Description:
Keywords: Membrane, Transmembrane, Transmembrane helix. The chain crosses the membrane at residues 40-62, 74-94, 100-124, 133-153, 165-184, 219-239, 251-270, 282-301, 307-326, 338-359, 371-394. The structure is a single chain. The chain has 403 residues and is mainly α. The chain folds into 2 domains: 1-192, Growth Hormone, Chain: A; 204-403, Growth Hormone, Chain: A, CATH 1.20.1250.20. It is built from 13 helices and no strands. The chain has helices at residues 2-32, 39-68, 73-95, 99-113, 118-127, 134-158, 163-189, 215-248, 254-257, 259-301, 305-333, 339-362, 378-402. The protein is globular. The model is unreliable at 192-216 (pLDDT under 50).
Amino acid sequence: MTAFGIVLALVQGLWAIGWVVYVVWLPGLVQQAGMLADWVPWLLILDQWVFALSDLVCGVAADRLRRQLRRFGPWLMAMMGLSALAFLLLPWAARSQAPTLFLVLTLVWTATSSALRAPVMALLGRHVSAQQLAWPTGLWLFGLGVAGALAPYLQPRVRELSPDLAFALPAVALMLAASALIWAERQLGHTESSPAPTPSSAPVPLWAARPRIVGLPGWGLFLGAVALAALGFQIHFPVNAAPQFLQLNPSATLETLLPLFWVGFNLALWPASRLSQRLGGVGTMAVGCTVAAWASAAGAASDTLPALIACQVLAGAAWACVLLSASSAATNAGRTGYEGLASGGCFALLALAAMARMTMAAGQGFQHPGVVPWLNVAPAFSWMLAAGLLLVLWRRQRSERGA
């Protein structure tokens, strides 16, 4: 199980580094392809829409494949191969001044890369018990945290490379890492905790699933909490972090300060997995949202750089609790043959939250006089609302168990 989680961490980290390369080079490639520079932010917004839709589609596909195939590591490998090929061809399409081809390749890369989220959680749900799921999920998210920490260092250095080399390195490395999925799934299958459902077995509808999230109202509360938590993160880190650091130290080097959030994230993944095993996904997510709210509010009120750094590290640790527990709780909620759909819904909301933030930024919404005074308190407010919904759900779960 640990080896499988390490493979997933490597794959996720390489994909996230590829996203950094894509964002850095997108403005230049768009102009080279003959499109207007104004398209860049809207292309990024479109990417998030595709991510959201593809998360659901890939999740449903993973559920169906699980009932039809003994292993679907080869299917994941095929999806990643298509994704890497489309990514690799983006600079060539831009040089060819073929905007339609460039857009098609971008959408193919975005859509197929969604196989790294919901299908991966469905794969884990197939082989790993509910009590053990948090640990490989934490390893998988570790790759995301490492890439997030490296992003500020990589961005200026990626610009020094040729676009062909910049896109080729993560694409080839991702394919090599993804090829290990087949071996890792085979090894994981030797220790499978429960047999996979047979193709003839009828899966229980998601709204009737009762392992972790009880009934449709409970599922709605959980998704509402995920959406609020994701919005809190999208404002706290991408929008507020850099201005808060620069306000206290105008000469600050952001590439050394912004990764501190992800340092806290990575350091907290192992404790978060242990806490999730003890409290369950919903309880751990509620704790994470509460701590994140307090850390965000304290950071906004900080008047010294060391205090702000401490708050950012704590907020990163809290976000690790939220993201890990949300991923594992969603997968456990679908342990009726719908792991992919349940986790896909969770990841789709994360993508939609990013899309909402990008849309506000593209429309200069964060500079609006009526919005600016609320930016520092918005993450804490959003996280506390999420914690409130999770508390209601947690109490409902306890009453259901006691009934």
